[in-house]
What does this fold into?
Amino acid sequence: MSSTATSAITPDHLRDALGFSARRGRTFLWCAALVVILAATLLGGIVAGPVDITVADTLRIVSHHVFGTQLIADGGSTQEAIVWQIRVPRAVLGASVGAGLALAGVVLQALVRNVLADPYVLGINSGASVGTAAAILFGVGTGLGEYALQGSAFIGAMGASLLVFFIARSAGRLTSIRLLMAGVAVGYALSAATSFLIFAADSAEGARSVMFWLLGSLGLANWNGPLAVIVIVVTAVAAILMIGARHLDALAAGDETALTLGINPDRLRFALLVLSCLLVGAIVAMAGSIGFVGLVVPHLARRLVGGSHRAVLPVAALLGAILLVCADILARILLAPQEIPIGIITAMVGAPFLLILVRRMHATT
It folds into this structure.
């Protein structure tokens, strides 16, 4: 019996098993390294600021609030308030937003099978922007209380996604290219709608606030409910995506492959759109419209760990968190004490990357 079992193990099986083990080990190592880098980046984001607070005092303050250790800091309550009430929530928000945008980019690139897809492409970001601009300028969603911005952004994102979905579906069977084209068209229309709302507003100050918000900022970070909502949403969606990572692999391989595995690609696309709306709606309402993270990070993750979504998802989330916290640090220190909208920093990084990507794609065709 043992000889039969031994003879069943072919060299191909052995190579596949060793290759899978090596890929899993590489993913683990990258995740461990990125966790360490993220911790260092978060510490840098907390320390950076116009008020000089040492790393030692920062660590003592954070340790006091997280682990209940004794608080001994040179600046007393003032430093404690700056670190714990302003800088730590901002760093947590930056990491959550970056991870969420990266996850949304991974999902949408698998959904439309296009390496240039991100939350902008399918109109999700534009829909969320319309909802949030309407809430800021005209008080839409006031019945939702402190969650008015988040609720309006989610409704706008969901409405845009449903519109894209049904436009693409009306032409026949839902395909990636139809979804992509419908998303681009709806995105442009909703961007124009956001601009119209800004010009239609009576308040010049409100219009300036929306314009600044459209470029992205983490300045609204605090320990109130909206930050907790974003952390919960990003964590929950990440867990769901990890459980369904093989479904993403199948969808990225094509509708025929998905159908062969018993997966309904249309239903899966709709479910992924809902998850993307949750992510983008919460993020846009809290941090504004931040581009290029969902485009750049998935490519970096795939270069590090390959194309399997079980490996790409955690690596992309960690990379996105690191990238956005670093971008926020630059946004605060480049023109200090003036703060640059964080979307400008991500665009400065993402635009050259996009040009390099397009050039490589052209070279391979």
Remarks:
- Residues 1-9, 11-18 have pLDDT under 50 and may be disordered.
- The longest helix spans residues 11-47.
- The radius of gyration is 22 Å.
- The chain is about 80% helix and 0% strand.
